Amino acid sequence: MNQKSPYSIPFNRPTIVGKELYYISQTIHNGYSAGDGEFTKRCNRLLEQVLNVPKVLLTTSCTHALEMTALLLDIQPGDEVIVPDFTFVSTINAFVLRGAKPVFADIRPDTLNLDETQLSRLITPRTRAILPVHYAGVGCEMDAICEIAAKHNIAIVEDNAHGLFGKYKGKYLGTFGAFATQSFHETKNFTCGEGGALLINDPQYIERAEIIREKGTNRSRFFRGQVDKYTWVDVGSSYLPSDILAAFLYAQLEARDEIQAKRRRIWEYYHHHLGAWAEENGVRLPFVPSHCEQPYHMFYLLLPSLEYRQELIAHLKSYGILSVFHYLPLHLSDMGQRFGGKKGDCPVTEDVSDRLLRLPFYNDLNEGDQARVVEAIQAFKPATLQFTPPVLSVNQRGD
Ligand SMILES: Cc1ncc(COP(=O)(O)O)c(C=O)c1O
Q: What is the whole-number distance in angstroms between the Cα of residue 198 and the centre of ligand 1?
């Protein structure tokens, strides 16, 4: 435990599954640690094969993969992009960077995903992309979203930061849109500290994606022997991670069954042991529709009120347990308001954002510590007197 931390059970803790450090040492022994080395290729191939995606490119983050999609779609100032209001800022910021106007859609109260029934109202002749976010790795209603996007010739970019190896109606998340983006940030099921991937399902974008990722050069073609020198051919940036990070990640992806089995156990433990308490206390546990297979990314509680949540965070803190809230409504952020967002625009998001609490969740969270979390929750007695919510710092949000 970090000496300064008041938490003996953190919200997240990076874990080693097996070969991470060995693979890192191999990159050094092989004499190649920059981007697109052996381990980057292995990660790309593994994801392409398992997910059956035409092209996967590791990136430095999910944020950067999203930025690449905005460049690939040639998003121009004034173009509109539909985004769920309940998501991380990067989902939309990547498009705002190119001058796009965000159009905030409210979420479904059950899965907390983009409410697909809102789309026809929000689409205009300027709409260029729809960005479904599979919250907690539970699939959005992709049948309806794909149908309306196809009807209006609008691109779909799935923000699948939470959902690697999750499925919707038997098909992997990340395989529905022209693009999907993954995150390997330290809070995700599979990690290399900071990292991401761009999944390209529409092959027409593959060549340009390689160029954009390689500083606007045709370096990938050069390495394949398709050109005899490489040069500046398009806009781009540096979106490829070091092979050292890819080596760490590859060990985790190889151990995906073991990791997913651990996370499933953790999720089911919370679900089983908190079920009765939740029912007695008006608390809702995560909902997973029967046609979705979740990858056990997180476990959250939907509590009766903001005050209840803030009090429970403080109560768990007194037991040495860090629990965190999640996204604030995008339309009410400083940036969201600059785009015209105002209170009441997305009532479900506004409500859920106040009441959602995420419990500690990491691969090596053992049953003893989980039992402590459950017991602490069961011992919670919300105050009936006036209550002042604690001020939370950004690093307590666990994004
Ligand atoms: C839905 C979603 N999209 C994108 C991101 C950004 O991911 P990254 O940190 O890999 O850029 C996050 C971060 O947690 C996220 O939750």
A: 13
